[in-house]
Amino acid sequence: MTTLEMFQIVGGLCIFLYGISQITRNLQKLAGPALRLLVARLTKSAWRGFAMGIFLAFAMQSSGALALMLVTFANAKLILVAQALPVILGAGVGSSLTVQVLAFNIYRFAPIIVTLGFILFYFVHSRIWHYSGRTLFSFGLVFLGMAIMRDGIAPFQSNPAIATMVQFLTKAPFWVAVLGFAIATLFQSSTAVLGLLLTLAFSGIVDLHISLPMIIGANVGSCMLGIFGAIHGKAEAKRIVLAQLILRFIMAAILFALIPYYESLISAIGGQIPRQIANAHTLFELLTAIVFFPFTQPFAKLASSIVRADKLDEEHSPKYLDTATLSNPLVAMGHATKEIMRMGEIVVGMLRDWGKVFFINDRGLLKQVLTEDDKVDALQESITGFISHIPCEKMDSEASSLSVALAHITLELEHVADVISKDLAAHVRKKIEIGYYFSDEGFSEILSYHDQVMENLKTVLDAIPLRDQALAKLVIDETKKLVGRQRELYRSHLTRLRKGLRETEETSTIHIDILSDLNRINLHTSYIAYAILGKV
């Protein structure tokens, strides 16, 4: 093998993989949030979820991308494992349709497909046609990559070394399955493995016998993208990917044990080798769906018994968000408001505890403040996801404005938590580690300003449930006073610096930074008040 021939094969593979990834990305952009909304709405019925899984996996060209979407929903408590499993089974069938398309011998027309796609996205400025062109262009890249790989592989068709290697692998089906699993895991796609097999089949290098173990392994390896995405997720997300892995592993074990009958059935269906490979993949997915669809509930219970929610996961989970209320926007937003109030109480607690840490140098309490920030981040993601799934068509203008305001308030509270955990916490940690001592006057000023900022934050939270506009206006007025108060404290600090007080000189930078960060919290508080007034 010459270096040029090697790079031709590798380069073709890179173009093929890039094309697959771009198809997924461009179809997601073409559909926008509609894909997420469809999944959220249609998973209450197992049959509708299964049908939606077929459609979305084929549309997105990736069952793995759909699995990641389900993981995101599970992290936001918008979907349960029993609802996700029918979608996953349908997604397997849908993704196999892509392989059926690849099995058509149309890679010779790849330049035409690329050209048509380029014309559409480069010269047509309509959003729909632009991303449709990009999708068509990406399909062309997939077939172009297959054509380049085929031309690169062609010289090896009569190579004795290749024949010997294929003969060896034919006698080691288990390791061929492991290889299929590894490649699917590496490229995060079973379609990548099937694309390689089809290319080799078009070149006459592999037959159905050697392809079947690799197909089986690849179908298990396709679960790994979802598993990687759920590693740091919540318990429900882990249950979904675990259930998916169990289903595929069981089917893979059954078909591997019955591989002679599996091969005979595919051969009986007929077709050339590339079509037989595509059919074998489709049959794997169809059998998985047919066998396990009636048992999604028992497998959901099995996954739940294996992966139990720990205390931290429960603390990070929302308590009031109920997907059953999404069909009634006002009720749903009432639930979201209760969750926002819970989130706000955590943020106020973080700010209060930071003041204690600043006063008594309590490292353990500082660590607790940082832990609380993780809760806030999780709640912000859940609340925002919940609000985004309230049907727009069922909202009047007032309800629509309220949903925007709630999302804005949620984001501002998360910003306040970030200021506390990332900036104020860093300052107080530095104070503890270096052993800074503030002047009595400076120390007192920081604590006083902290208390004023915290009281203003508590006031704006009181205004949220009933959207009390009078209280919101008071918060805005107080915010302006606190901005002026910050300037006064700056001048007071500069006066002590001019006097040459040693404690003031040592803590000058951290003193100013703390006042600045407290004022940032004050400004975020005013943004919440403006959101209550509908000024976002």
Structure description:
The longest helix has 38 residues, at 397-434. This protein has 536 residues and is an all-alpha fold. The protein has helices at residues 3-31, 34-42, 46-60, 63-75, 81-102, 110-123, 127-153, 160-170, 173-187, 190-202, 208-221, 224-230, 235-257, 259-269, 273-292, 296-306, 311-316, 329-360, 363-388, 397-434, 440-463, 469-498, 502-506, 508-532. The chain starts with a helix and ends with a helix. The protein is built from 24 helices and no strands. It has two domains: 3-306, no CATH class; 315-532, Methane Monooxygenase Hydroxylase, Chain G, domain 1 (Up-down Bundle).
In short:
With about 525 residues, the protein is mostly helical. The chain has 24 helices and no strands.
Low-confidence parts, pLDDT < 50 over ≥5 residues?
none
β content, as a range? under 5%
From the helix content, strand content and strand pairing, which structural class follows? mainly alpha
The proportion of residues forming helix, as a percent range, comes to over 70%
Spatial extent as radius of gyration: 29 Å
Order of helices and strands: HHHHHHHHHHHHHHHHHHHHHHHH
Biggest sheet record? none
